[in-house]
């Protein structure tokens, strides 16, 4: 366990595994003597983008940036503020996934500076995200389960108990290998919250946390079996790879997360590098090629791919990425929860297209979009009020077109759909 704990600490602090350099000086300037950040509203219980959650994420970033004696003292004051107040949100995700994840990172980095009471209080909060203390996590699926497994592994290492790690391994293998209603699908798309295409949303988070587990368990008895390692690699290089252009996701693959800032950034560079560093991983040549293509923006493989479970078709060549998504009665049309995606009715109305050359065409474009005129749709022109009413009435419902499908082989393929909409139909 000592070696795994050292590896976990490296994940938290080694610049090789960090996505960006945080604005540490700016955040320190906003940190009051009582441990609060002056620009955070701790009374706001917004379900998504919870302001109080930034308190922990900033503290983690400050620790990763390196602590002087003064900044360590100030960060410890901020941590004690959190432990005393124990903020919680009406959205269970923050209490059982987000907070335990951030707080476990903090305890790992600040452990030697904490007294026993502070350690125990922190561990009691982290325990809400560990299945050994919160059994309902065992019923989670897809990215939610992987978040729970990652938090459980960190909790086990913090308390010095290896017993849960074997179950973490078993559950991770099962989730990767079994073709469930959610998670990795037989066509290497990814579903979450029922039959919804989420390869670039929850599927991205699934890869990130699974890669961290694989890196953590490298050359240990808890490493995932070869079949699980191989299937994860195939999902990345034969699934996700064809939904990306130059480190940006196709907007049709991220679900309701499309409405979040920087939602289309892939976030795959770090997990790919982690997997490539693991001795037991296979498919390294193809993963390395994928990684190189995102860094250099050069693509050597032209391919057409029809994802039959998701009814999504992608065409990729050296010049562009072009995709189309068809409506399907076996797929949930769109999701709107936690006050996100309130106008998203037409995101899967059928015939939606995505064309990218440099990958940044759709980056943070949402505030300017007319959601009744999304690319490729045949939806009627509506005001935002009309579209909001229809979106709330029809959200989380399956598509209505039974006649849709496609086929692909190497560099050729097609997607077809018989559409139904207000006042008419067509193909």
List keywords for this structure.
427 residues; alpha+beta; two-stranded antiparallel sheet; 40% helix; disordered C terminus
Summary, kept brief:
The protein is an alpha+beta fold and 427 residues long. It contains 13 helices and twelve strands.
Task: Explain what this protein looks like in three dimensions.
The protein is α+β, with helices and mostly antiparallel strands and 427 residues long. It has helices at 2-13, 24-29, 53-65, 69-85, 92-110, 116-126, 142-159, 163-177, 202-216, 226-238, 269-276, 284-296, 384-394; strands at 183-184, 190-191, 244-245, 248-249, 303-307, 312-316, 321-325, 352-356, 404-409, 412-417, 419-421, 424-426. β3 (244-245) and β4 (248-249) form a beta hairpin. The longest helix has 19 residues, at 92-110.
Helix-and-strand structural type:
alpha+beta
Strand-residue proportion: 5-15%
What is the global morphology?
Answer: globular
Low-confidence parts lasting 5 or more residues at pLDDT below 50?
422-427
> Percent of residues in helical segments?
40-55%
Strand order in the largest sheet: 5-6-7-8
Radius of gyration: 22 Å
Number of helices: 13
Distance between the termini: 59 Å
Give the topology.
Blueprint: H1 2-13, H2 24-29, H3 53-65, H4 69-85, H5 92-110, H6 116-126, H7 142-159, H8 163-177, E1 183-184, E2 190-191, H9 202-216, H10 226-238, E3 244-245, E4 248-249, H11 269-276, H12 284-296, E5 303-307, E6 312-316, E7 321-325, E8 352-356, H13 384-394, E9 404-409, E10 412-417, E11 419-421, E12 424-426
Antiparallel strand pairs: 1-2, 3-4, 5-6, 6-7, 7-8, 9-10, 11-12
Helix pairs in contact: 3-4, 3-5, 5-6, 5-7, 7-8, 7-9, 8-10, 9-11, 11-12
């Amino acid at each position: 366990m000592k070696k795994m704990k050292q590896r976990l600490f490296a994940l938290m602090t080694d610049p090789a595994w960090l996505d960006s350099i945080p604005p540490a000086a700016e955040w320190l300037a906003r940190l009051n003597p009582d441990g609060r950040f002056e620009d955070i509203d701790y009374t706001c219980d917004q379900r998504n983008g919870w302001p109080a959650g930034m308190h922990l994420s900033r503290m983690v970033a400050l620790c990763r940036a390196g602590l002087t004696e003064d900044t360590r003292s100030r960060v410890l004051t901020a941590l004690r503020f959190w432990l005393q107040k124990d903020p919680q949100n009406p959205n269970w995700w923050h209490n059982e996934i987000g907070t335990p994840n951030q707080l476990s990172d903090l305890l790992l980095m600040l452990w030697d500076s904490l007294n026993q009471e502070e350690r125990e209080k922190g561990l009691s909060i982290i325990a809400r995200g560990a299945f050994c203390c919160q059994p309902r996590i065992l019923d989670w699926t897809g990215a939610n389960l992987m978040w729970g497994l990652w938090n459980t592994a960190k909790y086990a290492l913090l308390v010095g108990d290896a017993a849960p790690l074997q179950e973490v391994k078993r559950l991770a293998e099962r989730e990767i290998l079994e073709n469930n209603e959610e998670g990795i699908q037989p066509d290497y798309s990814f579903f979450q919250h029922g039959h919804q295409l989420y390869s670039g949303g929850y599927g991205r988070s699934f890869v990130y946390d699974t890669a961290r587990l694989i890196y953590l368990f490298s050359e240990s008895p808890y490493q995932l079996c070869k079949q699980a390692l191989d299937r994860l690699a195939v999902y990345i290089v034969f699934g996700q790879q064809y939904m990306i252009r130059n480190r940006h996701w196709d907007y049709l693959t991220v679900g309701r997360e499309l409405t979040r800032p920087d939602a289309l950034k892939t976030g795959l560079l770090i997990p790919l590098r982690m997997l490539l560093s693991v001795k037991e991983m296979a498919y390294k040549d193809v993963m390395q090629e994928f990684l190189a293509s995102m860094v250099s923006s050069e693509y050597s493989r032209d391919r057409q791919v029809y994802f039959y479970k998701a009814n999504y078709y992608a065409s990729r060549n050296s010049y562009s990425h072009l995709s189309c998504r068809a409506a399907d009665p076996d797929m949930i049309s769109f999701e709107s929860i936690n006050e996100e995606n309130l106008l998203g009715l037409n995101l899967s109305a059928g015939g939606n297209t995505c064309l990218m050359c440099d990958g940044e065409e759709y980056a943070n474009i949402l505030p300017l979009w007319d959601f009744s005129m999304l690319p490729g749709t045949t939806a009627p022109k509506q005001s935002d009020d009309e579209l909001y009413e229809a979106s709330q009435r029809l959200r989380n419902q399956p598509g209505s077109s039974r006649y849709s499908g496609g086929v692909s082989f190497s560099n050729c393929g097609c997607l077809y759909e018989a559409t139904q909409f207000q006042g008419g139909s067509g193909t």
